[in-house]
Amino acid sequence: WWAGGVPWGAWLARPRSEQVSVVDAVAAKDSLGGILLNVLLPLLPLNRRAHPHGGATLSAALRLTARALEGHSHNQAEMLRADGMLLLGHLLSRVSVAHLSDTSVAALADLEVAVREAPRLHASFVENVLLRFDTWRKLPITTRTAHLELVGRISVELTRRSFDGPAAVGLGLPLFLLDE
User: Fold this and answer.
1) Which residues is 3 bridged to in the sheet?
2) What pTM does this model have?
3) Nearest to residue 87, comparing CAs of 148, 127, 128, 39?
4) How far apart are CA 180 and CA 163, in angstroms?
5) Nearest CA to 66 among 19, 99, 29, 110?
6) In the structure, how many helices (H) and strands (E) does the chain have?
7) 122-152 pLDDT, tens digit each
8) Short-list 162, 161, 140, 158, CA closest to 150
């Protein structure tokens, strides 16, 4: 028997371990790469206004992401490698306005604290989540104000730490708007 130019018997005799590649053995709690999609999966149906408990689901997913990243260098590295903040920003831009509230902004604040210790991931969070104004411009004024206050607090913190990068420069405009 031949399959694709390879003897069928030889293919069956090949050990399965040749087909598995293990780069690094890590504990499950330190492996966000395997669960990144599962953590963000609850955000997908939130594009519908009628989703029951949408605001609570959004806040819970953001807080779960924060807990998975806080203090776990493997998860932080995987989130950065997989452009997880870009994915999160995109999913948030698709969430119905009905589900975004002060509670979700507070959950974003928790996420910001969780990624603060990883400068590149923090910069990605600021750029791809917080500064995506296409997400935040459609919100009620109270939620928009909470978002801009969060951006302002982060800007002050970055300035205090003398962070010199694109995220700090990008935060200058919202801080200017808050001062006006």
Assistant:
1) 6
2) 0.71
3) 128
4) 24
5) 110
6) 10, 2
7) 999 999 999 988 888 888 999 999 999 999 8
8) 158
